[in-house]
Design a protein that fits this description.
By secondary structure, this protein is mainly beta. The chain contains two helices and eleven strands, in the order ββββαβββαββββ.
């Protein structure tokens, strides 16, 4: 099995004909026909999504992140990386680096509403919890062209953007 590691991220217009947009903070490894995107969670954020900056937020519970993000999420999202990908099969490998409570991960089509039964059949939503401190979990998904959001509702991160284009 051939293995290739690329670093991806988002700079405007960075697709440049490659399967992944190149920047320096979000690691992607291609194994066969599945690309692995590696993300690290710390208090109230995904480090790679915020240009590799760990804001060192101190959090003991979800409510701490609710307060932190109410004050800073808008400004942080304005500077955040947008992951740019080609359609295909992906594994999101997500690690809870040091948050002292259980986390999860949620990737969904922009505009997805879990209360809308039609969305369960027409839009993409991949999620899961149980990510204890120091634990890494994987989330498999096939992405089609469109806009997506990803976040951790249990760690209350901002809704980071992911765009899939041919």
């Amino acid at each position: 099995m051939k293995k290739r590691t690329t670093f991806i991220g988002v700079a405007a217009g960075a697709i440049a004909g490659a399967a992944l947009a190149a920047s320096a903070s979000i690691a992607a490894t291609t194994e066969g026909k599945i690309t692995i995107i590696t993300l690290t969670q710390t208090g109230c954020q995904f480090i790679e999504s915020e240009n590799g900056i760990d804001h060192m937020f101190k959090t003991m519970k979800k409510g701490d992140c609710d307060k932190i993000n109410a004050m800073s999420a808008e400004q942080r999202l304005a500077k955040a990386k947008v992951i740019m990908l080609k359609p295909g099969k992906y594994i999101f490998r997500v690690t809870n680096r040091d948050v002292p409570y259980t986390l999860g991960f949620w990737l969904r089509t922009k505009g997805y509403d879990w209360r809308n039964p039609i969305h369960k059949f027409t839009k993409i939503s991949v999620s899961g919890g149980g990510m204890e401190t120091g634990k890494t979990l994987e989330y498999k998904v096939t992405l089609k062209p469109g806009e997506y959001l990803y976040s951790c509702p249990l760690n209350t991160t901002p809704d980071y953007r992911l765009v899939v284009k041919n």
